[in-house]
Amino acid sequence: MSAKIGLFYGSTTGNTDAIAELIRNEFGKGLIDLHCMAEASEQDFADYDNLIIGSPTWGIGKLQHDWEIFFPRLDYVNFKGKKVAYFGLGDQVEYPRNFVDAMGILAAKITSLGGIRVGSWSTRGYKFEESKALINLQPVELSNGSITLVESQVIHVSNGVRASIQGNFVGLAIDEDNQPELSIERIKVWVAQIKERFGL
Ligand SMILES: Cc1cc2nc3c(=O)[nH]c(=O)nc-3n(C[C@H](O)[C@H](O)[C@H](O)COP(=O)(O)O)c2cc1C
After folding, report:
1. Measured between alpha carbons, how far is 130 from 154 in angstroms, rounded to an integer?
2. How far apart are CA 157 and CA 138, in angstroms?
3. pLDDT per residue over 59-75, tens digit each?
4. What ipTM was predicted for this assembly?
5. Domain for residue 132, yes or no?
6. What residues line ligand 1, using a CB cutoff of 6 Å?
7. Domain CATH for 101
8. Can you tell me which atom of ligand 1 is nearest the CA of 59?
9. Strand partners, 141
10. Nearest 5°: phi and psi at 52?
């Protein structure tokens, strides 16, 4: 029998692999099945109502290799009604204009295919210039005249300096290159948040 959550990830030099293991441990025994994208198929996604998607960013703003190969096949996965949380690895010092872009690219694609995004994460504590993984809150007026805040994904933010950008990422951002000492605590807080959203 499958676990309650399918965690699908790609990893070129092993960092995302290690973070996926930490996330699985934080959830506790038996809740998460890990699927490496080098071996995953469209059908593997069908077993789960709850998904976690993880990718580092490579090649300056690009998906990790196995995700890049699989990307066109996402169109054949049924994401409708599934809750999907995202995590991304990146390097905010070397790649401040493309920090964790891959997480944003995957979230935009999977959300367009019907996935319900959960588990956004504050940008507080990171310094970078641009990221495709940012979302913002926009005020929208409802028919009864009241105002509500609706999340939308920001594709381009450009202020030209490496700075603290206020807002939220679409999912958990992990920087093993510059802030490895913060990863465990970030995972703990994020997992508690998405556990609730997954109804576990
Ligand atoms: C050639 C190269 C390109 C990279 N490009 C980006 C990038 O555009 N944005 C980013 O946030 N991180 C970038 N990174 C950093 C990686 O995402 C980071 O090291 C990550 O932890 C690697 O994960 P992995 O070991 O699972 O493959 C790059 C690293 C290298 C070596």
Report:
1. 10
2. 15
3. 999 999 999 999 999 99
4. 0.99
5. no
6. 11-16, 56-61, 64, 89-91, 95, 98-101, 176-177
7. 3.40.50.360
8. 3
9. 147
10. -125, 130
